[in-house]
Amino acid sequence: MAVPPVARFTTSTGVRIYRISCQAFPGLVAHTYLLLGAGPVTLVDTGSGYGDSTRHIREGFEAIRREFGESVALRDVQRILITHGHMDHFGGLAQINEPITAEIGIHELDKWVLVSYEERVLVATKAMQFYLEQAGVPIDRRQHLLSMYTEGKQHVRSVKVDVTLSDEQEFDGLRIIHTPGHCPGQVCILIGDVLLSADHVLPRITPHQNPESITAWTGLGHYMEALVKIAKVEGVRLALGGHETPIENFYPRIEEIRIDHEKKLDRIFGMLTGEPGWTIQELTDRMYPSLSGWNVLLALTEVGAHVEYLYERGSLRVVNLDQLEREPNPALKYSAR
Description:
single chain; 19% strand; Metallo-beta-lactamase, Chain A; seven-stranded mixed sheet; 38% helix; alpha/beta; 11 helices
């Protein structure tokens, strides 16, 4: 799979941003960003470390020297900032950092993903297993999804964190903005009139949501609040996300994402109106009948996040309370109030 070439962007404050792309997983391109002129040489995100991901980043540094005349190499990186604790953004950290020992920073709510990675995988897998049971996923399909969930995570190991990032922290012309929802510690980074929007705002995809019942500080409620928050940040001329193309229509794009979620909420509420009760698995099958592979798990958690949002706000009710009282973790059946 070909990855996009290195691209250069300049902020209103004169910081040079180089986008270095890599194939994080088959079919998924992720972007990392090299910042020059914003304090020490800084790399934002490190790819997944899976397959050719790290090689693509190393080749990106070579292209920056060759095509843009910058006398910078990977060994010159002094600081690495991780936008959030998803593997396609931090999984290559140990491979990237081994020869350079750069200072590593991540938001405090995602710090444990880096420093206790093995613990995090175990805890998250148990939470996912509980969720899939509650969603009504049949046991044979459940085991397959759990195997897929843990696949590809074995190459990552725990690393130290030197600095924890916090909301509205500013240093070297960078402004950290905490935008949870897609991930607990998701941050956007404002540099002059350019925003590194990571996976909070993307140009085409509506960023995936997990239920907060799986991981605290995820969930559609946190995400929608963070959308409102980032829309109030003034003067964003260009947003650069963790995937896809640059976003020139940043503020209209935020509204498009908000409307997309509202439409999903309306659709789910409409589907459950007048029904005796459906599980999340049944809802997902009706909303997305033709999915396969990893997209099945994404759909189950995305639908679950929207069901959770409606339930927490009193729009839905659980109809099989007698079964819930008898059994430790039955599949919950929802209906509109």
